[in-house]
Amino acid sequence: MKRIPRLIAALDVETAAGAAGLVGALSGTVDYFKVGSRLFTAEGPGMIRELKEGGVSVFLDLKFHDIPATVAGSVRAAAGLGVDMMTIHTCGGLPMMRAAAEAAMEASLKNNTARPLIVGVTVLTSMSSEDLIDVSCYEGDVESLVLRRAKLAAAAGLDGVVASVREASAVRREFGPDFVIVTPGIRPAGAASGDQKRVASPRAAMESGSSHLVVGRPIYDAPSPRDAAEAILAELRG
Ligand code: C5P
Hints:
Layout: E1 6-10, H1 16-26, E2 32-36, H2 37-43, H3 46-53, E3 58-64, H4 68-81, E4 85-89, H5 94-111, E5 117-121, H6 129-134, H7 142-155, E6 160-162, H8 165-175, E7 180-183, H9 202-208, E8 212-215, H10 217-220, H11 225-237
Parallel strand pairs: 1-2, 1-8, 2-3, 3-4, 4-5, 5-6, 6-7, 7-8
Helix pairs in contact: 4-5, 7-8, 8-9
């Protein structure tokens, strides 16, 4: 019996008003709201404070990738805003990931708050093996690179990784039942894949062992975002 993954709605809109409208429409359905670079750049940290004041769980997806001291500072700042989960990029290397994990722990002790989950982005779900070769990053297949980066993330003390459904079962096998696997590129039947290349249905992601599903356009572009989220939950509950 597979565990039903947590549903994360991406607030990939440009204004606080647009985000508030989506949060209102989806209240009580999804488990987390994801603030990415689009909304954060437009509206800033006040947006996160407003969401937290509204009592919702926030996933800050800014994919931090910098020197260890800078990433540690960014993680502390995000923890101070009260985010529940955030992304860093595994490309930043082991010392950077360790610094992020330690900063999250220190911030939660200092602020007396729950420690935010830190997950490492492995390979963007919009990238294929050919794209990896183009950026002179890797000549192997995507799955082996994801596993290699997931190993580093686990060694650094991260809570899990972001990986597509194609790699989720291998990651689950290797890292056990408690490792967080956040999977974007989720497309219910009939939804357009857009720029995503490694896509799958909500059910397929669940069967592959993803613990958290990120859904953007199939929810926020739907005529009724709430109906779209409920249809995904119904598919997951079978
Ligand atoms: O609209 P769609 O469902 O494709 O949105 C997926 C969301 O997940 C976007 O906000 C994107 O930034 C994010 N994401 C991703 N691939 C990753 C990490 C995050 O698509 N590896």
